[in-house]
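Below is our example:

___
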Amino acid sequence: MAVLDTDLRRTDERHYRRVNPFWVQSSPFGYENTNEKVLLFAFPAVLGNYFLHQFVLEVEIAFSGGTPTIDIGKCTLDDPSVDLTYSNLDEDYYIDNTDVTEGSAGYYMPGTSLTEGTPNTVSGTVWAKALRENDVGALIVKGADTAMPAIIATLSSGLTAGRARLYMLVSRIGV
């Protein structure tokens, strides 16, 4: 087991009922979190289940220092009432660093590519391939209090500047 470095979940995003679908945004994260795994969102049972429609990573201030990379992935928090110990880490489940130009401010989304052949192959993140192939199971997050699903950012080491935030278009389901 390992422990996440920083908790940047926004408490104001957790308690309001909204019309589906709706956008949520993370707290900003950046060079201060160099070489860290940063908790952006978590899904406790009380919030229910969510369908994740889209992800947009905004690089507000270009990253520099070292070789800047950002991955957006997932893990499960073992017992978030105690600490940020996590397991089941997949660092680039949602957005891979190859989909982002960290050294340029802008908006970035997960991508896929199709290589035609026998058979055709699709490459990209697990989430992006699931969206392309209509694999609904990989697009749903089920809230839980133990083994709580979480979305994290993994930042490279040596960063000296830069700031980003993650936006997600989600729908609460099973309400």
